[in-house]
Amino acid sequence: MKSKKWSQYTRVKYPVSSSSLHPFNFFVPIVERVQEGVVSIVTEDAPHSKNMDSLIRSLMNEEETPSTTERSFGSGFLFHPKGYILTSEHVIGKSKNIYVKLFNGRVFEAQRILSDRVRDYAVIKIDADCKLFPLPLGNSAHTKVGEWVISVGSPLVAIEVKTSTI
């Protein structure tokens, strides 16, 4: 394998909007290229009782506990223009409600399509009324040991979920 000098990598022109990009910031253009395909995920579920006494009381209707929800946060990415999203199964688990926030700030309720607890992946779908930016799936057969990998996730963001009771 022919060796390249480090300076050959630093002279590459990256298509990036940032004019102050340092020559060694290789990951900035990658993140800017894929950020619209990465989504934030918030799930809601009934809280798990950690106290056995409160669980028994609630089953016997002795003490009415207020109905609150537990929220979990994660990320995923769009892989199909019709709104299919790949995420980890542990992100959505057995949650009752799944919400997805796109890069543009819009929030959609998602439905579970497929999940595999053993392999820890899940596919969810949103019905968006806007243009989506899916990312291509890679092929591990084209990778080599020692190659750099970057994982782009969505930072923890607040998703306002409005629910109404009738």
Automatic annotation (TrEMBL):
Gene3D superfamilies: 2.40.10.120. Pfam families: Trypsin_2 (PF13365). Keywords: Hydrolase, Protease, Serine protease. The keyword Protease applies. The keyword Protease applies. InterPro entries: Peptidase_S1_PA, Peptidase_S1C. This is Serine protease. It comes from Brevibacillus choshinensis.
